Structure formats: structure tokens, C-alpha cells
Amino acid sequence: MTSNAQAIDKKNQTSISPESLRVELRRPFPQPSLRGIFILLVVVFVLAVSWNASRPTAINRINGIGDVVSHMADLVRRMFPVQFEWARNTERTINILGNEITIGWPLIVTAVIETIEMAIIGTLGAVVLSMPISLLAAKNTSPHPLIYQITRLTLNFMRSIPELIWGLLFVVGVGLGPFAGVLALAFGSIGSMSRIYAEAIEQIDPQQVLAVRATGATSIQTFLYSVIPQALPLLISYSIIYFESNVRHATILGLVGAGGIGLKLWEYTGLGNYPRLMGTVIVLVVAVTIIDRFSNQIRQRFI
Predict the structure, then answer these.
(1) pLDDT at 287 over 80
(2) What's the CATH superfamily of 107-302?
(3) Cβ proximity of 247 and 119 under 8 Å
(4) How confident is the model at residue 15 (pLDDT cuts 50, 70, 90)?
């Protein structure tokens, strides 16, 4: 450091005075430049074009925010009082304070349980298949740059196919039912899950890997004792997140006959039976809340 306490601008390799540096640090936003203005204009142009393509049209019957609020409020009013479709031979009528109330086992609960079971097995299958693929997709564990590039391209292809399309393909391939949904969730998650697993593996400390290798450990031993322990917290966190996401994805796979609650959602919506649709939404909210609490407990235990 020189006697006049000048700072060195590393980018331009020129000296600037402390006063100028102090002014730069006090400025909340960078000084506009031609490059910044150009980028801003491009962003504004893209937003304008996107809005023009997606804005409300005559078919939407919406002229402003007030119309949106009005239509949604009307839909919510039509959803009450909440109704449930009871499973056969479970209906019972009880009298409470002079009012007859019908209770039973909601058919939608069985569908929600099936949806969660599909998400559990589908996520587990995705985890098992993603682990070896992620090793090929991580720069620090891939055996060759060509294998790394091919694996990344394959994952990009798999990520581009939505779970609903996977469900349709597997329904055609293996038939109707939850098994097609499980396969759709597993293969629909591999692309994204393998990528984030690979990114977690790339973030590990290479010095620990070198230290294990210095002891004479084999490649498998190095992987088990240096790679996995470092990446495990992130792998668990990502797996839990994908399980929660797969619960939501599984709710729509029933639209193509891949099991789950989607078929009932489609049925109630198509028939305009909004009270039963609201009952389905309530059961889903309760299920997702329970899953969220359970997931938090797992995160606190392992992360």
C-alpha cells in the first residue's frame, strides 16, 4: 500500500484515490453504462412481447383486476358447503342437536393415500437411479469429459419431458394403474435429480478426497468415505424436496389413467361439482401439511 493509501483497480490496473473509492461504495446502484442500458432494453422488450402473447383476450371475459377478483370470488362461493363422496357401505347418518349429518369414509382419502404411496416409491426409484448417473454428470467424478457431456445431454433430454407425458407413455406401455404412475414419477425425476445430485457432488472439498486417496483407498472406498459423507446432507435435502414435489405431480397423473387422485379431480371439475372439488382440496392440504411436518423432522435429524 502506498503512502497516500491509494487503492488499485484490478480491472483497469489504474490507481484511484480513496475519495473516489468512497464515493463508488456509497452509490447504491452502479453507474449506468451502454451495456447495462442495452440489457435493460432487451429485458423490457422480452417482457412486452411475453405480455402481449399471454394477456387476457375476449375469451377470458376479463377487463381488469376487478374482474379477476369477481370471478374467483364467485368460484369460491360455489365450492361451499363442502361435500365428500363416501365409500360404499360406509355411510352413516347421525343426529346432532336435531340435525341429521351423514358421515363415512371419504373416497378421496383412499385416492390421496394411493397418491402418496406412488410418490414414495417413485421418488425412491429416482434416487436409486440418479445416484450412479450423477457420478457420471459431475466434473470431479466423471471418468471422461466425453462421458460427462453425453450424460449431461441425456439429462437435458429427460428434463424436457413433463411427468404427464411420461405417465401417458407408461400407461400405453404397461397399462393403467398406479404402477404406470410410479414409473412416470421415477423417470420424470431422474433428469433434474441427477443434475442437482451432480452439483452437490461438485461442491465437495477435493482435499478430503485427496487425503483418502493418499491412504491407498480404492475408487469405491474413496467414494464411500470422502464423497458421500460430504454430499449426503444435500442429497437428503434434495430427495425430500423432490418427494414433496412428486406428491403434487402424482395428483395429476390420474388424468391419463396412471393412478392417484387426478382422475377424481378431473371428474369433479368436468361435472362442475365444486363442493366435492373443495373437499378434495381440503384433504390434499391436510396431507401436504402432514408431509411438510414429517419432512422438517427428517431435515433437522440429518442436516
Answers:
(1) yes
(2) MetI-like (1.10.3720.10)
(3) yes
(4) low
